Amino acid sequence: MPKMKTKSGAKKRFKLTASGKVKAGQAGKQHGMIKRTNKFIRNARGTAVLKDCDARIAKKFLPYG
Fold first, then answer.
1. Which end of the chain is more exposed for a tag (fewer CB within 10 A), N or C?
2. Whole-number Å distance between alpha carbons of 24 and 30
3. What is the pLDDT of residue 65?
4. In the chain, what are the domain boundaries?
5. The pLDDT of residue 53
6. Looking at residue 60, what is its pLDDT?
7. What's the mean pLDDT in 6-10?
8. Per CATH, is 8-60 categorized as 3.40.50.12780?
9. Across 1-65, where does the E strand assignment appear?
């Protein structure tokens, strides 16, 4: 049986933790920072663990995750 391919878009956007949770970058930081509050910019740094309902969708594209 051939290996399943990971979606290349998903491998760039998501990482799996050791416990199987899905990490992703925070949304809303690509452009338009002048209209965002300083609190929003500060809180959107780094990565976040996705909620279960969103993680289920992301895991469909990461077959060996």
1. N
2. 14
3. 76
4. 8-60
5. 97
6. 94
7. 95
8. no
9. 14-16, 22-25, 47-49
Q: How far apart are CA 30 and CA 55, in angstroms?
A: 22
Q: What does the pLDDT average to over 43-48? A: 95
Q: DSSP characters for 3-61?
A: PPPPPHHHHHHEEE-TTS-EEEEPSS-SS-GGGS-HHHHHHTSSEEEPPHHHHHHHHHT
- What pTM was estimated for this model as a whole? 0.80
Report d(CA 46, CA 38) in Å as an integer: 15
Q: What is the largest CA-CA distance in the chain?
A: 52
Distance of CA 10 to the CA centre of its chain: 8
Does residue 18 have a pLDDT over 80? yes
Closest Cα to residue 25, out of 65, 58, 62?
58
47 close to 24: Cβ distance less than 8 angstroms? yes
- The first and second tokens of residue 37, run together, are 């509050």
